Amino acid sequence: MILENMTLQYTNKENGEKLRILYIDHESMYLYYVIMGMTMCMPKKEHIDKLEEEIATGVLIKIPDPYLNNIDEKDLSENARYKRDQQWEIIKKYWESNKEAFLEKKGREKLFKEIADKENIARVSLKRIFNRFWERGMTKNALLPDYKNSGAKGKERNLKSKKVGRPKKVDYMGEVQEGINITEDIKKIINLSIDKFYRKKEKPTIKAAYNSMLKEFFSDKYVENGEIKYKVWSKARIPSYRQFYYWFKNYEDIQKNVTFRGSKKEYKLKYRPILGTTAMETDGPGTRFQIDATVADIYIVSSLNRNRIIGRPIIYMVIDVYSRLVTGIYTGLEGPSWMGAMMALDNMIADKVEFCKEYDIHITKEQWPCEHLPETIIADRGEFEGYSVENLINNLNVKIENTPPYRGDLKGIVERSFRTVNEKLKHKTPGAIQKEFRERGDRDYRLDATLTLEEFTQILIKMVLHHNHKIITNYNMDKEMISDELNPTPINLWNWGIKNKKGRLRVIDRDIMKLNLLPKGKASISRAGLKFKKLFYSSKKAIEEQWFVKAKQRWVDVVYDPRNMNAIYILNEDGKGYEVCHLLKKSLQYKDCRLEEIIFQEELKEELIEWEKDKQNQLNIDLDKEIEDLVKKAEKEKKNTIVETISKSKKLKGIRENRALEKEINRKKEAFEIGREEKEGIIKAFNKEAVKEDEEEQDTRRLTLMEKIKRKRDEKLGKK
């Protein structure tokens, strides 16, 4: 219920606007209020229902009166009393007799002007008197000139009962600060402060939230040197930190705290109630497989040179949720990525006897019997999104359930297996990570790396075989299992589930599985062949059906293995067969190459061409300049030798004869002279005086020859 002189505060506004109710008109259902803390604020009108609704929804909350305090007249100065009493006479004279005129905006300024003229006071000063009166509690002491020092904040507190709780200790000055009782209104403020100041992404401390509450709800805001400051009320008027902490714990909501300070994902991962088990979601082997990857906590070495450390291997593991049996593994350097997941899924359907034989481990079918497709695979979103997953869903009828980000708990079985593997590696293998941070002087455990990838895989296979025959202590067994006296090992649960539960397991041809796991692309068809990733391919079917001649379609869907681009595959329409396309000779430079290497080489080639283009531009400009210079020189020579008496027709008629003459001259210049170098050597051996000819005679012979050639040319042109 809203009452006159009640103080309220908005919770949805940054400045935390505080209101004081001045007057309530129940007949018209309107009320009047002022905004506290402003330099000059006149009364505002609002509908009662609106404020009641805001109070009900928590937009507005009740707060302690910030100006309420006990004033001892003996503590007031004579000047303060004089100013207060003088202004109080004005309030008494005009406020009670004409209250509605002051509250309504219309006519208010005219009223202030009339009173100011009558009392011989400035209108601004008069408005300040009324503003202070309204804002600070509508009491006589509200007009005291210095509230910060005098503490004249309004009506005296009239506590009905003594402060409850632990008695306060006497402070240094010998005084006891009793504090306040935590009323329902104070509880609302504490609860709101927890929401507003504690539940934030910045993760403030409880103490910081308490301080923010004091600043917002239990302090006076004032301006000093143009800067807004806050003065916290005395201890007698504020809740203590102990009280705040008590009610903080009372209102504690773990879900809200973690969600607002962290995220929903964090809550679901670490704090959500665990009321069920993953096995409850299955009804037999093959219902659900979980797949995940981790980086092993061990460093391994190269198989080519054990002195070369190649880092930590990736482990992929596929586990049947119902039985906890490991149905597929992959150890390598791929991933975590789709390539690694693809290898694990391939191993999932592989014959484990043959797989172990590759690593010189000999087992029977009964020791590791799984080589099947499941009904559902639970996986990470990052690796199991895209074309290959669509193939598993659409072609092989395998459902894929992607867990949300950061929800490893939804694949708890495989996550637990990874922890077991890494714990075993840490204590049994050289090169394992012993602790997260090394101290100065500690030996670098990476230097102890000894195992190759193949040897590490052998160890993992041994651990998987051990796991498959190990008792699961916390498995929730069915009554039928107990009746059959079943020991809950993964292999026993697998075999019992196949016999007694619904059959969900399916067998598939491994090549078909591989084709559905490989990524997909589009190859273009042209006369040059099938072009894919800038490589060219052909196939028997394409040649027989004359794809490269007819070219009825421009594109064809293909699947490929990025680790080896020697061949790509075209799936048949029925999905049961495929056509192999082999590299053509024009692309054989990329034989046995990975796709990443091919892309790198092509990008490098394009960069080199672009880089060369810059040089080529300069060469083109230089060539153009040289050509222009030669043309200008030739034009100048022609201009100096031009004969204007020769007609255009005569010039054109002599082209054939001129060509023949020029050809004869060029033939003499171009004639091969065999043994020329040898002759030149002999000539150089002669005495210089003997071989030296008279320069004048040489010039004469040269001029005579040139005159003869010129004369013949002139005769041909018709000049005597």
Automatic annotation (TrEMBL):
Domain Integrase catalytic per the UniProt entry, residue ranges: 281-498
Q: Which residues form a coiled coil?
A: 601-678
A Pfam family it matches: Mu-transpos_C
Q: Does the keyword Coiled coil apply?
A: yes
Which top-level group of life is the source organism from?
Bacteria
This protein's record includes keyword Flavoprotein = no
Q: Which UniProt keywords apply?
A: Coiled coil
User: This protein is called what?
Assistant: DDE-type integrase/transposase/recombinase
